[in-house]
Amino acid sequence: MADSHGNAKGATAHTEAGGGHKAPFPPFQKDTFASQLVSLTIAFVALYLISSRLALPRVRKTIDDRQNKIEGDIAQAQTLKNESDAALKAYEVELAAARTRAQAIGNETREKLNAEADTERKALEKRLSAKLADAEKTIASTRTAAMSNVRGIASDAATAIVQQLTGAMPDRKLVDSAVEASMKG
Fold it and tell me: C-alpha distances in angstroms, 50 versus 31, 39, 45, 46, 59?
C-alpha cells in the first residue's frame, strides 16, 4: 500500500541515504558548490544583460515618455493659466472702464433730467405765479366791487333804519359819510 506521500512501502525519501543517515542539503554540498556558484553567476550576468539591454531600456523609455507627457501637460496647463489670468485682467480692466462709463452716463443723464425738471418747475412756477397774480387781481377787483356794494348796501340799510326809527328820511350825504367813517374804523 502507498503511504500518504505516494511512496511505496519500504521506500526511502530521496534525501535520505541508506541506513537512515541524512545527506546534506544539495546546494550546500561541498562537491557541487563551486559549479553552482559559476552557474549562478552566469545566470545573474545573463539576466542582468538581458534586462539591461532589453527590458530596462523599454521601461526607461516608458518612464521618459510619461515624464515628458506630464511635463508637456504641466507646461500647457501653465500656458492656459497664464492666458486665463491675462483674460481675467483684461476683463477686470474692461469691467472697470464699463463701470466708469456707466457712472458717467448715469451722472450725465441725472444732470440732464435735473436740468429739464428745473426748467419745467420754473415754467410751472411762472405759470402759477401768473395765475396767482391774475387770481389776486380778480380777488382785489371783486373785493373792491364788493366793498363798493357794501357801502351802497350799508348806506341803504342805514337810511332804512333811520327812516324806520325816526320816521323821516335822513340826508343821503350825511348817511354816506357816517358809513364811510364806520368802515374806516
Answer: 30, 16, 8, 6, 13
For the residues 163-173, what does the mean pLDDT come to? Answer: 84
Alpha helices in the chain (DSSP H): 33-50, 56-166, 172-184
User: What is the Cα 159 distance to its own chain's centre?
Assistant: 90
Binning pLDDT at 50, 70 and 90, where does residue 169 land? confident
**What is the CA angle 174-179-183, rounded to 5?**
150
pTM, to two decimals: 0.40
Alpha-carbon distance of 117 to 120, in angstroms, equals: 5
Q: Can you read off the three cell numbers belonging to residue 61?
A: 523609455
Q: 16 forms bridges with which residues in the sheet?
A: 22
Mean pLDDT of 120-125: 93
